[in-house]
Each structure stands twice: as structure tokens, then as C-alpha cells.
Amino acid sequence: MIPADVIALRARARAGDPKALTLLGRRLLVGGDGVAASPQEAVACLKEAANRGNGEATALLSVFAAWGVLRSHDLGDALDLLQRAAELGWTASQRELQFIAGAQNTNWAELRRQADLARWTRSPPVKVLRERPSIRVCERFASVAECDWLIALARHQLQRAMVYRRDAAGFVQSANRTNTEASYFIGNSDVVLKLVEARVAAAVGIESRFFEVAKLLHYEPGQQFHAHCDFQEPSTPALRQEIERHGQRVATVLVYLNDDYAGGETDFPRIGLRYRGARGDALIFSNVRADGSPDYDTLHAGLPPASGVKWVLSQWIRSRPVS
After folding, report:
1. Angle between helices 18-30 and 55-67 (to 10 degrees)
2. Which pTM value belongs to this model?
3. 3-class DSSP state of 51
4. Phi-psi region of 32 (alpha: psi -120 to 50; beta: other; left: phi over 0)
5. Which of 176, 203, 210, 290 is the most exposed place for a label (fewest CB within 10 A)?
6. Sequence-distant contacts of 201-209: CB under 8 A, at least 24 apart
7. 265 membership: H or E segment, kind and range
8. How far apart are CA 115 and CA 97, in angstroms?
9. Cα dihedral angle (111, 112, 114, 118), rounded to 10 degrees?
10. Distance between the two ends of the chain, CA-based, in angstroms?
């Protein structure tokens, strides 16, 4: 049975209420609470709300353009929609456009012109730490302000980090992984994140359509991720099916979002390497060999901070586009 509040919400949306259209679009995007997920209908609701001058709906459409959700991926269009949302008075979009442009004025058209896509998506030089396995470092990959922005974007979504199940599809908690994490899903993402992901793509030379949903990793003192490999081990039917459906996890990018903690290195025990990035540095490593087979020398651990907390942006990259 459809809940009464959903029936009332749909009635207001059909009557053209921009706020109801926006709320319904949000609920249709992910489903739940008496509403079945319907991304196409969600986009239609949000477009109608935007046409009726709703800033929140326009801001969501800017994220859709940045993600390429039910439309082509276009960062320029995303910035245009962000400008429109700012003009409609949506405060979050105003702050975001100011942040991207690097200016604090309220001339939204001027800020849009100042938003330099080339600067945002250009990667600093990448340095080789190890040839085999391939481990590289990109120093000052992200600015301090960008690191703070990325933490704030998802820190309220933290939950216990999970690992892949070996016996069935899905995830499970493990004593080997005690940190927390948050996923940058479209509902809690923004254009800034996708600009940073475009920079990641430039650093690794792989298009962002091969990227999994990025994760914000959080380690309190004593929390850790014991030694593991990021590739999918084809050792069980469930894991083989995972690889067949989604491709192998061929590379990992870790962006260190803070450095005011002790310990907490990324440890590669089989090759005797420990790395602790400065704030904004990125660590890039391949999980497979040149022939695509798993590289067990990439075994690594997220060691526990001795004091302070550790924040990391984690981006896994697949061998085929992620739908």
C-alpha cells in the first residue's frame, strides 16, 4: 500500500508545486519509504521543478550533468546549471560556485566565467615510487581547501566499512577492517567532487567512467584495514561473477586529506614499502600486472593512527566502464 504522504506528495507534484516536484524527484532517485526507484521519472520531476524556478532541483541537475546520469557527462553544462541554481538563490550552489571560481563575489555569471575547468582537471606531475608493482605519487594533488571540502561533503554519512563477501554477492563487516567510510553517492555529491575525479582521470590516464563510487575513509586511533589486495580474487563463484559483471579492480588512488595524525601509513609488506602522504598528496598503484592478472605484491594495509584521525579519499578503478 502506498503511504498517504506519498499520495499527497504526488498530488502536489502533479499540480506543479516546485518543492513537491523536487522532493518527489529525490525520493524517486533512490527509492524507499513507499516509493519505487525510477531515475527517469526523477529526472523529469527535477527538470519540471527547475523550469519552475526551484534552485535545489537545478543544483541536483548540475550534479547529474557532472555524473552523466541519464544524459551525457558534461562538466561545462554542470557549471552552467550550478550558475543557474546560484541565481535562483540556492545557497549551497552559491558557495560551491564561489569555491570553484576562487572568488567570493555574488556576480554569478562572472563567477561562472572564472571557473577554470582546465586548472581544475589538470594533474600535477606523477612520480614513480616503484616500477613493479607500479606505485606512483602525485604530490600536492589537491589543495588544503579541496581536502577540507571533500571531508565536509560526506563526513556525516560515515558508517562501519565493509568488505566483499566471498560466498555471495554483497558486503559484510570484518574484524580485519575496523575503520569507517562514506560513499559519495549522487545524493550527497557535487560538482567539486567530479572535478577532482576528472583530475584523478588525468593522473592515471583512465576515463572516469571506469571509476567506482568514490569513498571517504576515516580512521580513529587504533582503527585499521589489515593487509589485503584491492583486486577481486577469483577464488569463489561469487567473486568470479563479480569480476564478470563489473570487471576487475585494476587500480587504486588514495588522496590523503589530512596529515595531523601520527602513524597511519599505507604499508606494502611484501615489497618493504610504507608511505604516508602529506595533506593533498595522492598515492596511485596498479592492482594487476601488465597482462591483467592479479598482482599479489600489491598486498597493503591501512595502518592505525597512533593519535589523531586520518581522512582519505579512495578511488577504485575497474577494467570496464561502471554503469
Report:
1. 30
2. 0.94
3. helix
4. left
5. 290
6. 201/121, 202/121, 202/122, 202/123, 203/123, 203/124, 203/126, 203/138, 203/141, 203/253, 203/282, 203/284, 204/251, 204/253, 204/284, 204/317, 206/251, 206/317, 207/321, 208/73, 209/68, 209/73, 209/321, 209/322
7. none
8. 8
9. 150
10. 31
For position 292, what pLDDT does the model report? 94
CATH superfamily of 127-318: q2cbj1_9rhob like domain (2.60.120.620)
CB 121 within 8 A of CB 196: no
Nearest Cα residue to 255 out of 266, 243, 244: 266
Q: SS in 3 state form for 128-197?
A: EEECCCCEEEECCCCCHHHHHHHHHHHHHHCEECCEECCCCCCEECECCECCEEEECCHHHCCHHHHHHH
What are the grid coordinates assigned to 234, written together?
A: 577469483
Other beta carbons less than 10 A from residue 26's beta carbon: 17
Length of the chain: 323
Residue closest to 258 by CA, chosen among 135, 108, 143, 130: 143
Cell of 292: 591483467
**For residue 107, what is its C-alpha cell?**
556576480
pLDDT: which is higher, 118 or 32: 118
The DSSP symbol for 222 reads T
- Cell output for 141: 594533488
Name the residue ranges covered by the structural domains of the chain.
4-117, 127-318
* pLDDT of 156 over the 80 cut: yes
Identify the CATH number of the domain defined by range 4-117: 1.25.40.10
The string of DSSP letters for 1-47 reads ---HHHHHHHHHHHTT-HHHHHHHHHHHHH-BTTB---HHHHHHHHH
The residue type at 146: E
Q: Looking at residue 70, what is its pLDDT?
A: 86
